[in-house]
Amino acid sequence: MHPDVKEILLTTDQIAARVREMAAQIAADYRGREPVLVGVLDGAVVFLSDLMRALPIPVRVDFVKWSSYGDGTTSSGEVQLLKDLSFSVEGRDVLVVEDIVDTGLTLRYLMENLETRQVASLAVAALLDKPSRRKAPVELAYVGFQVPDEFVVGYGLDYAQRYRNLPYVAVLKPEIYRSP
Ligand code: IMP
User: Fold this and answer.
1) Closest to 160 in 3D by CA, of 134, 145, 178
2) What is the per-residue pLDDT across 107-121, written as a single tens digit (0 to 9) for each?
3) Is the distance from CB of 114 to CB of 36 less than 8 angstroms?
4) Catalytic-residue membership of 102
5) To test ligand 1's pocket by mutation, which of 68, 101, 157, 169 has the most ligand atoms within 8 angstroms of CB?
6) Is the pTM of this model over 0.70?
């Protein structure tokens, strides 16, 4: 275990098993279609890369990147689009792939933005859901796990750009969050 980690919330095996279940559900729901998986950079890259390889249906993949968090652990609520989609999603089934939905503010901006693009359908797959902190109601079609109101890292999630490469989801020791 990484020395900065206080507790592992979700092990590598637990995540892998759940991602396979989510992929089976998504494949059944999108059978006969070719959805566009829209990964939300940077945090969703690990989840997206595992999810897409577990999907036995054809998919397209694109990315968006929003700014909102800075280096802290709470949302500023201010969101800017730093990277837009690379191709048109008009008439396509869009499945947004998110690492974690916390206040829901980032996702609400993204959904409102995508809804203006004449998509055939729009849904969200989130690996983690922190429902206790929701400020903007968002509908999540697929959720991997609910997590408590703690700042988590690993499996793509960062704290101040670190720990994304941990192969599990964990909570850091309190002194790590306090240090500048
Ligand atoms: P929201 O707008 O508050 O829902 O925040 C969404 C984004 O904040 C996520 O896509 C993450 O990038 C980041 N985030 C929220 N909670 C956590 C956490 O516990 N650990 C790491 N990143 C988080």
Assistant:
1) 178
2) 999 999 999 999 999
3) no
4) yes
5) 157
6) yes
